[in-house]
Amino acid sequence: MLNRRNFLKYSLAGAAGLAVPAGIKASTGSAPAEPKKGDTRWVFLVDSTKCVGCGLCVKACKNENEIQYDLNVSRTWVERYVVTKDGKVHADSPKAARDGFTTQEIDQGHHGKDIVKPGDITKAFFVPKLCNHCENPACVQVCPVGATYQTKDGVVLVDRTWCIGCGYCIMACPYGVRFFHPVYHTAEKCTFCVHRLHAGLKPACVEVCPFGARKIGNRLDPNDPVTRTILDDKVQVLKEEFGTKPQVYYLGLSMEVK
Amino acid sequence: MVHGEIWTIKELFTYPNEYIYWSVQIVMYPFMTGLVAGAFVLSSLYHVFGIKELKDIARFALVFSFALLFAAPMPIVLHLQHPFRGINVMMTSHFTSAIAAFGIVFFAYGAIVASELWFLYRKHFVDKALALREKQDKTFGEQLWYLLYCTLTLGSYDVSEEALHRDEKAIKILAGIGIPVACFLHGYAGFIFGSVKANALWMTPLMPVIFIMSAIVSGIALCMLTYIVVMEIRKILIRRSRKRWEVTLEEVKGVELHVVQMTSRYLILFLVLAITLELLDLIFRGYTAVKSWDVLRSVLFERDFYDIFIMQYGIGNLVPLILFLIPGLTIRRTVLGVLLVLFGVFMMRWNVVIGGQAFSLSFAGYMHYSLPIIPHDWETFKEGLFGAVGIFIMPFVLFYFIAKVFPVFAEAKQEGH
After folding, report:
1. Is residue B413 pLDDT above 50, yes or no?
2. Model confidence over A243-253: pLDDT tens digits?
3. How many domains does chain B have?
């Protein structure tokens, strides 16, 4: 008979049963909140003085990671900055620079094109961008279901089978690297081509860059050339004021870069 | 086309992946939770603080808050790219996220409202169940009602003086707990925005408090509006057949005006608090003028000037404030006032959610949201005008059905009107 005592007993048992799936998910460790340190911490080095804005990296990334070629999103992109004598900064990244910068016109979106006279230009340069795989990633912090997580080797990933598509991570990323995958409808971003790294290969963008503007290395290996550059040279990171501790380091970054 | 591209117009230099990802449904989400919280706080003013002038509207506000409660999570469900995975938030709550506890806070609050309603209506359920039990030859419909009322009594048929007194005590305690929980529910919605450090417009510790104040304002306004509409319907019914009603037309008119005038005082109080906090935030940003101020200023004072200063502060705040402050408040003036207040709070949500995405993370470009009006696929339907209007209508439809089980005026008559 279901008296009050039994009712309470069964209710408690039921509540305990409901808590089981959460326990299982937590114990399988698919979304560790604090990754344990191993012997690898992938970091990226961008030498912006070497980038010519050819866009091969963007093309390679789209092919490697199956991001539709014609869609206006990309895991990585290249920005062009043109500074004129009046101190004005003209910047663009048409189609994420998928086809490189083939014209002198600056893409201003709905505003059309900016035409800058070559004689007015004081400096111009290109800056490749990608996920910063931050040490303190805001996207991981805000994911309500733990679908975005950081691996032991520092790479920030998204579990496409678990992401609910709320977009909070997209809002939280100060670098604007995230978007919704048009096929899977889940949050999407650069993975440092972790599948290639695990196979002993370099990320597609690093592999394809003809000028060596993109490099990947292991921050925990003191003899790694990337680590040596980070330690020995004057490097910068993007938007460090957000406290995310980004792990993409830049050589030759100019103050105009946002 | 990727999500967000269809309604985003990008200008100047924006990053390639930037679009308006949080669209009109995310405007509706804090708007609806705000109404829930506000309606509950209004009902609690009577139950906890014993503000007798609000007695009539308190019961009404509680039932309406319950109807609103079901509609509050719907915008999020419509917004999610994977709505059927929404339950994952409960399965693997990642508590460093401000959204993770939403389910828990929401259900806790729902349980409080439901319990309070139960104590408030227990006698009604018992009376109905007993009356139907004694009735011979019940129709099928009556049989169903009988089953429903029996279930709703939860087996508790004791309606002695002492038991009812205990009910009242329980209501008072639940309403007392409910106020901080309701504020938490909505302050929490404010925290979801206020804690996004990447967004220069959202990030302020004032955001949760601003959200709570405007929530109470909107909740009171909607309760007043619905109360007036229901009273007007009653008046029409009384005019048509006087015999069925225990109250006269003049009595209803008197009660209506008295309740509305009393409630409007609280509306003014919270409206002033909300405006003060919002202006404080604005002044502080301008005075400190950190890195993001240049782009924020161009959004606030140029691009969104019309939406913010004309629509929100002007038409939505200042005009109703003047309408309420002019002596001799009438029902007609109140209706206009509360409609404008509701519009103002909606515009505030709009200017926070859409305004926060109006500028690029590059601080060198802008994004304009063009609300899809005529839908041409599921996405433009649910995240367009129709989806938003559907969400707004939902609580009124629910209220119609819920009020059949929880009559908002039946007992008011017995209590002396």
Report:
1. no
2. 999 999 999 99
3. 1
> For residue B158, what are the contacts with CB-CB under 8 A and spacing of at least 6?
none
| Residues facing A106 on adjacent strands | A114
The alpha carbon of residue A237 and the mean position of all alpha carbons in its chain are separated, in whole angstroms, by 13
Overall average pLDDT of the B104-109 stretch = 87
B209 pLDDT more than 60: yes
| Residue B334, pLDDT score | 94
Q: Is B370 on the interface with A (CB under 8 A)?
A: no
Whether B9 maps to a domain, the answer reads no
Quote the distance between the C-alpha of residue B86 and its chain's center. 22
Is the Cβ of B82 closer than 8 Å to some Cβ of chain A?
yes
Weakest mean pLDDT among B3-7, B110-114, B137-141:
B137-141
Mean pLDDT of A175-186: 95
For residue B362, which phi and psi values (nearest 5 degrees)? Answer: -80, -10
Say if the Cβ atoms of A22 and B98 lie within 8 Å: no
Whether residue A62 lies within 8 A of chain B, CB to CB, comes out as no
* Structural domain harbouring B323: 24-353+371-414
- Is B5 within the bounds of a domain? no
Nearest-CB residue to A174 (from B80, B198, B368): B198
pLDDT for B241 beyond 80: no
SS3 assignment for chain B:
CCCCHHHEEEEECCCCCCCCCCCHHHHHHHHHHHHHHHHHHHHHHHHCCCCHHHHHHHHHHHHHHHHHHHHCCHHHHHHCCCHHHCCHHHHCCCCCCCCCCHHHHHHHHHHHHHHHHHHHHHHHHHHHHHHHHHCCCCCHHHHHHHHHHHHHHCCCCCCCHHHHHHHHHHHHHHHHHHHHHHHHHHHHHHHHHHCCCCCCCCCCCCHHHHHHHHHHHHHHHHHHHHHHHHHHHHHHHHHHCHHHCCCCHHHHHHHHHHHHHHHHHHHHHHHHHHHHHHHHHHHHHHHHCCCCHHHHHHHHHHHCHHHHHHHHHHHHHHHHHHHHHCCCCCHHHHHHHHHHHHHHHHHHHHHHHCHHHCECCCCCEEEEECCCCCCCCHHHHHCCHHHHHHHHHHHHHHHHHHHHHCCCCHHHHHCCC
Query: What confidence score (pLDDT) does residue A46 get?
Result: 97
The CATH number for B295's domain is 1.20.1630.10
Structural domain contains residue B358: no
Strand partners of residue A91: A81
The answer on pLDDT for B300 being more than 50 is yes
Within-domain flag for B98: yes
Structure confidence at residue A73 (pLDDT):
95
Neighbour tally for B227: CB within 10 Å = 22
**In chain A, which ranges are continuous DSSP H helix?**
4-28, 56-64, 138-142, 168-172, 194-198, 204-208, 225-232
Q: Is B91 in CB contact (< 8 Å) with chain A?
A: yes
Average pLDDT in chain B: 89
Q: Do A26 and B92 touch (CB under 8 A)?
A: yes
* Complex confidence, ipTM: 0.88
- Which residue from A230, A222, A225, A221 is spatially nearest to A212, judged by alpha carbons? A225
**Out of A146, A173, A185, whose CB is closest to B82?**
A185
In the structure, what pLDDT confidence band is assigned to residue B183 with cuts at 50, 70 and 90?
confident
The reply to whether B303 touches chain A by the CB within 8 Å rule is no
Q: Is the pLDDT of residue A27 over 60?
A: no
Interface size between A and B, measured as CB pairs under 8 A:
161
